[in-house]
Amino acid sequence: MTLQTAIPCTFMRGGTSRGPYFLRSDLPEDREAMARVILAAVGSPDARQIDGIGGATTLTTKVAIVSRAAPGQAQQVDYLFAQPAVDRAFVDWGPTCGNMLAGVGPFAIESGLVPAEQGETRVMIRAVNTGALIEAVVQTPGGRVTYDGETAIAGVPGTAAPVLLNFADAVGGATGRLMPTGNPLDRIEGVDVTCLDVCMPVVIARAKDLGKTARETAKDLDADKDFMARIEKIRRAASLAMGMGDAEGRVIPKFAMIAEPAGEGASVAARYFTPLACHEAMAVTGGICIASACKLPDTVAAGIARVSDAAREAVVIEHPTGMMEAVITTGTDAEGKPTILAGGTLRTARLLMKGEVYIPSRVWAGR
Question: Whole-prediction pTM value?
Answer without folding.
Answer: 0.76
